[in-house]
Each structure stands twice: as C-alpha cells, then as structure tokens.
Amino acid sequence: MDLETPPYKAVGTGIPSIADPSLPLIDSYTYHSPTPSAPGPYILGVDEAGRGPVLGPLVYGVAYCPVAYKDSLEELGFADSKTLTAEVRSSLLKTLGSDPANLGWSVRVLSPKAISAGMLRRPPVNLNQQSQEATVLLIREVLSRGIQLSEVYVDALGKTAPYEAYLSSLFPDISFTVTAKADQKFKIVGAASVAAKVTRDAWIEGWIYEELYLPAPTAGITSRYFAGNEQYEGGATVDSGAPKLDLKRTWAEETGSGYPSDPKTQAWIRSSLEPTFGYPSLVRFSWATIKVVLDKEAHPVEWIDDGQASLMKAFESGTGLDKNRCAVAKDLGLRSVGML
Asked: Are 150 and 174 in contact, with CB atoms under 8 Å apart?
C-alpha cells in the first residue's frame, strides 16, 4: 500500500470517545461525556469489550443515570452488546448521548502497548489487575464530577464475591452488585457494554499503525485536552502534522475481530510477522498465541552483556585471607565491622 494515500479508514468519525480517528492509539486514555445535570442519586453500570482478543485495546465502559430514570431507561433498547448488530449498537450509542441531562457515560481505553507492558513487567500486572484499576478509575472520576452514586452494577470479573467486597471496601457508601451476565440483567450495564463495544470496534476497524508515522521535528507528543464539554484525559497521541514514513505497509489489511479463534485474525498473525522485528503495536505481546508464533517463526535473539560476567566476578567472595570479602570490598579497603 502506497503511503501517499492516508493508511486509514476514518471509522471512528462521529464517535465521541475517539477524538481523532486519523491518529494512532499509543497510550491509554479516558473519555467522559458531558456531565448529567439531573438530581441524584444515580445508578451506574460497568462492562468491558476486548478482554480476550490478541489484537487491539481493552475498553472499559460505564453508563449512569438517576435512580428516578430507571423506568425510562428500560424503554431505550439497551442490552448485551454482543447480541446486537453493529448498526443497532451505533444507534444506541447515539441514544446514550440523546438525553445529556439524565444519561452519562465514560470509557477507559487500555492500549495494547500498555496491556503488554503491564503483563510483561516484573512483577507483572495481570489483566485482572489492569481491569480492576480501570473500573476503579472510572468510578472515582464519575464521583469527582459531582455525581452521587448509590448503586453500581458490574459484569462479572472472575470470582464475584471477592471482587464485590473489594469494591465495597473502596467505596463504602455505594451498594455494589457484581454478577455474571450483568449486561443481560441490568439495562444500565447493557448501556455501558454498548459504549465499550462501539469504541473498541471503531479502533480495530480503523486501526492506524503507529509504526508508519514519524514525529515532525517541531511536533513531538501532545495530549488530548478539552473538546467543548467533553474531556479527554491522559491520552498522548502523535501530532497530526507528523509526516508518514516512505515505505509500504507490511501488515495484512484484514485483522478480523482480534480473537485468537477468528480465522481472519489467525491469517493476519501468520501473514503479518516480520521475522526480525516481530509485530506492530496492535498486538498484545503478552498473549501465548503471539509468544508461540514468535518462538517458532521469528529470528532467535541472544542478548549479550559483555560487562555482566566481570561484574558478577567482582562481587564473588574471595578465598584464603580474603574469604567472605569480594574484590570490590578489597579494592576499596572495606572491612566488616562487628561492633561500632
């Protein structure tokens, strides 16, 4: 593909939670809709999209409305987003923004690069921990916007009872319900599911490869700020004035859903491997699916540290008169002190 033509489809255009669909997703970020003005207390639902995929971001969504708005919410058509068509989900996201006095929503988008970095660090931050952090962050930020929450419903994350107790300990004034299939049981969770799913799908379908962009000499990294009454927090993106690299894209066009079981995703994984450099940042490198392919198909790498052997030897215990005294201590004239 010749990069004289922009290497993207502006799939995210018109989706409030994606500030500029022509820019790559580099860092995780949070989006908040305009804050509802109706009096509380409020109920809030939490759901996610993209825990299992090997490609793309994990998106946590929350939706909230006044307790007094529950009956109206029941009539809006929200449900588990996986049971809805893409067209219905897009329509429901517009519905979610159609009554800003009563309906609010937010998403936390965890970039694949951030997911990989967390899971591959030592000690690792596993996906459950990252998911919990995203949930807690969203609840805290909704509260900080002046919303009084009385009830929160969370789609199950592993064992429900410990997680429910954990959230209750952090927010003792809120009644938590953590349960399986919450997006089918509670409309407010269904609304959160729609927000998360539409956001993730738009990122995947219109994915911009970060590797095909270079920062302009005077550009560098910028942050997303306020856009009208909509707030973007902590999401760094490459400056829109950045020139594109003069090379051809080496990755397959069709990524599929990103799930390891998807034949289109499997085909992308097979055809998009660069033996020396691996995969682009669309990939979650911490997934076993990717590790297996890299081990089998990529060039082996041997990490050599010329100074490591001499460094270890310098701290080895000596012998004879220098027993229990390493070369460093001897050179510096250091001795053990039994009493001060």
From this structure: yes
